[in-house]
């Protein structure tokens, strides 16, 4: 690469092109590859030679996406999967065995809760939770069999934040693998590996795609750790399709400009909401009222595109607010060009009990806003009219 500026890597890093000299990345819709002869087949399967074999393992589109994402996030390499949850499942399954324990942030995406609470215990893998802002819970939560520390920062939907440098040092001191779900920040805003994380995971479905089109998951880390992921993923099959990798590779070309605008719009929305008396609480990393504002400023380039609010009046007020929105979509996705409102208690986190939800700060009045790329005046006008009480 001519230089290491984020935008230039995202646009210019590319794998080898074919004899047609495609300018943009072509799409390789092929499930398998031919070998020149029996000896080449043997050498490729024996890992004595590099090359494409079968698209469950790798494909030029997934390879280009991995190389770009690794360069953008300061990782040696990576692996891609069909969805963000497949990336999380693959990572847990590749590193954890019966008898191991995971110490996880309490505030995590709903399906991640389900993996830890209901799925991995079936294989005798246990978990416990710690609050992102309570250092003593992390220090005291480490057990003899703790194999992995897992954090989501900023968290979904609470926008809680942990000091990555601090948790990186703690994990290192105890020789425990630190895995960070970096979905809300993207590599443009936060690069966890630089603070001591071993693996950084993305749901590429969100801001990386950025246009609400496709699902995808990405895992980034060292050659050694990703080889372990590969060992599990090649044979268990959570592969990303070449088509989705092609979309996501193209999406990365515009990630920086999109994120700049998402963040600019979201900060304006957060400031607007904070001044409104209908709102009990606003959570946004770059609002000075955020309890971990200083940490957010230290480790994030900007605050991201998600603003979470708690409206006075509980579930009824949240429902009324959402139903009155004219432009915002009501949807469970986030990170789209379109602004989206989600009610976590009845959607993404509906499988938790009310008590578990309250523990992670999700009230019936909590609404998660994914701030899109429409004109900021229209975004604020829509929120403002939806807050009016007749
Ligand atoms: C923080 C976080 N991690 C993981 C996921 C799961 O990603 P996917 O829907 O691509 O499986 C999501 C989805 O919303 C998320 O918000």
What does this entry look like structurally?
The chain has helices spanning 6-12, 38-45, 60-73, 84-95, 110-119, 135-141, 164-174, 186-189, 223-236, 242-252, 255-274, 293-299, 314-324, 354-359, 376-387; strands spanning 77-81, 101-105, 126-130, 146-152, 177-181, 199-203, 217-221, 279-283, 306-311, 329-330, 340-342, 366-370. The protein has 15 helices and 12 strands. It is globular. The strands form 2 sheets. Strands 1-7-6-5-4-2-3 form a 7-stranded mixed beta sheet, with helices on both faces. The chain has a 5-stranded mixed beta sheet with strand order 8-9-12-11-10. The model has no long low-confidence stretch (mean pLDDT 96). The relative contact order is 0.13. Helix 7 links the parallel strand 4 and strand 5 (177-181). It has 390 residues and is of the alpha/beta class. It has 2 domains: 6-252, Type I PLP-dependent aspartate aminotransferase-like (Major domain) (Aspartate Aminotransferase, domain 2); 255-387, Aspartate Aminotransferase, domain 1, CATH 3.90.1150.10. It binds pyridoxal-5'-phosphate (PLP). Residues 83-85, 109, 111, 152, 156, 181, 183, 203, 205, 215, 217 line the site of pyridoxal-5'-phosphate.
């Amino acid at each position: 690469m001519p230089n290491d500026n984020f935008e230039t890597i995202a646009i210019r890093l590319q794998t080898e092109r074919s004899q047609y000299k495609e300018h943009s990345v072509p799409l390789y819709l092929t499930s398998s590859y031919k070998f020149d002869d029996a000896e080449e087949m043997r050498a490729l399967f024996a890992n004595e030679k590099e090359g494409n074999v079968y698209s469950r393992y790798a494909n030029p589109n997934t390879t280009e996406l991995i190389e770009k994402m690794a360069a953008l996030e300061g990782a040696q390499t990576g692996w891609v999967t069909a969805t963000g949850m497949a990336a999380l499942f693959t990572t847990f399954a590749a590193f954890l065995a019966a008898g191991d324990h995971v110490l996880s942030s309490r505030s995590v995406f709903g399906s991640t809760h389900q993996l830890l609470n209901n799925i991995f215990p079936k294989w005798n893998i246990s978990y416990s939770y710690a609050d992102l802002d309570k250092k003593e819970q992390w220090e005291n939560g480490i057990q003899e069999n703790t194999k992995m520390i897992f954090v989501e920062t900023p968290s979904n939907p609470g926008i809680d934040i942990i000091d990555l440098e601090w948790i990186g040092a703690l994990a290192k001191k105890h020789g425990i693998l630190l895995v960070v779900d970096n979905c809300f920040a993207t590599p443009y805003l936060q690069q966890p590996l630089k603070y001591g994380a071993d693996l950084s995971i993305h749901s590429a479905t969100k801001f990386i795609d950025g246009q609400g089109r496709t699902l995808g998951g990405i895992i980034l880390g060292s050659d050694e750790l990703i080889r372990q992921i590969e060992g599990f993923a090649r044979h268990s099959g959570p592969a990303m399709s070449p088509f989705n990798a092609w979309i996501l590779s193209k999406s990365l070309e515009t990630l920086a400009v999109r994120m700049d605008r998402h963040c600019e719009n979201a900060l304006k929305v957060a400031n607007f909401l904070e001044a409104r008396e209908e709102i009990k609480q606003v959570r946004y990393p770059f609002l000075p009222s955020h309890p971990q504002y200083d940490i957010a400023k230290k480790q994030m380039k900007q605050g991201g595109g998600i603003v979470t609010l708690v409206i006075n009046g509980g579930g009824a007020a949240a429902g009324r607010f959402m139903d009155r929105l004219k432009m915002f979509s009501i949807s469970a996705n986030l990170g789209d060009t379109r602004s989206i409102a989600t009610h976590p208690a009845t959607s993404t986190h509906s499988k938790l009990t009310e008590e578990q939800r309250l523990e992670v700060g999700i009230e019936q009045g909590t609404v998660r806003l994914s701030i899109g790329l429409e004109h900021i005046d229209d975004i604020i006008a829509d929120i403002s009219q939806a807050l009016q009480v007749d």
